[in-house]
């Protein structure tokens, strides 16, 4: 008895997705930084980003992604910089089943930086947060609870958009996404249903060109 060859589940999924005109992103997509090549929107979204190394499906038929991991490169560690200076690895080693192999000269090419880790860790205390808290206290306004440093939306803006793009944040809070976008030469629209949060966050934009404070926001600081 000859049994038919079994088709792996991943292959079936890929086939079904392609039939529907959708993309499937395989594990470890993309290529090295030394020779960037044009990538489809699916690979571009994941390559080197927060979801790099994970299999996923993009459910949109024709999304347009402006991602470029060269915009979010971090500085090389001191140890890796020494490795580059030395011309790369001087050893040959293989680990596991040989899937990970180190060859002489590996990691010796000088690059503009390293890709950040999949998990971004930042403290919530930053200059903009301190300025916002001082302003809110001076105006007698409550401070927004879930703070984030400006570096988080700055990272996402540089990675996921191009200069001049319009970024929309439906949950404005302290308008950090908008501030980051405009500092990077983009445009932004933010909505927030608590007027007092918007009034406090507006002070972060006071030095921006063309800043105007709607008189309606002044009622947020007036006693009821």
Can you count the helices? 7
**CATH fold descriptor of the largest domain:** Rossmann fold
Shape: elongated
> Please, what is the CATH homologous superfamily of the largest domain?
Vaccinia Virus protein VP39
Q: How many beta-strand segments?
A: 6
Q: How does this structure look, described?
A:
The chain is of the alpha+beta class and 224 residues long. It has 2 domains: 10-72, no CATH class; 127-221, 3-Layer(aba) Sandwich (Rossmann fold). It is built from 7 helices and 6 strands, in the order αβαβαββααβαβα. It has helices spanning 9-19, 41-46, 78-85, 127-139, 151-160, 176-183, 195-202, and strands at residues 23-25, 56-58, 93-95, 100-102, 166-169, 187-190. The termini are far apart.
Quickly describe the structure.
This protein is α+β, with helices and mostly antiparallel strands.
Write out key terms for the chains shown.
Methyltransferase, 7 helices, alpha+beta, 2 domains, Rossmann fold, SAM-dependent_MTases_sf, two-stranded antiparallel sheet
List the helices and strands and how they pair.
Elements: H1 9-19, E1 23-25, H2 41-46, E2 56-58, H3 78-85, E3 93-95, E4 100-102, H4 127-139, H5 151-160, E5 166-169, H6 176-183, E6 187-190, H7 195-202
Parallel strand pairs: 5-6
Antiparallel strand pairs: 1-2, 3-4
Protein name: Methyltransferase
InterPro entries: SAM-dependent_MTases_sf (IPR029063)
């Amino acid at each position: 008895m000859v049994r038919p060859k079994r088709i792996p589940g991943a292959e079936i999924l890929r086939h079904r997705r392609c039939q529907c005109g959708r993309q499937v992103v395989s594990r470890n997509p993309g290529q090295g930084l030394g020779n960037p090549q044009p990538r489809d929107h699916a690979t571009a979204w994941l390559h080197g980003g927060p979801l790099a190394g994970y299999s996923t499906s993009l459910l949109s038929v024709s999304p347009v992604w402006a991602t470029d991991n060269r915009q979010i490169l971090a500085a090389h560690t001191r140890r890796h910089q020494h490795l580059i200076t030395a011309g790369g690895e001087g050893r040959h080693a293989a680990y596991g089943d040989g899937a990970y192999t180190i060859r002489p000269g590996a990691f010796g090419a000088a690059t503009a930086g390293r890709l950040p880790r999949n998990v971004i860790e930042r403290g919530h205390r930053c200059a903009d947060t301190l300025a916002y808290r001082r302003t809110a206290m001076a105006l007698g306004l409550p401070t927004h609870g879930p703070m984030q440093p400006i570096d988080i939306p700055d990272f996402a803006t540089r990675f996921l958009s191009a200069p001049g793009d319009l970024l929309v944040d439906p949950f404005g809070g302290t308008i950090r996404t908008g501030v980051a976008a405009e500092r990077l030469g983009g445009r932004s629209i933010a909505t927030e249903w608590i007027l007092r949060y918007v009034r406090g966050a507006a002070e972060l934009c006071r030095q921006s060109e063309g800043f105007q404070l709607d008189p309606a926001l002044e009622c947020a600081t007036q006693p009821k």
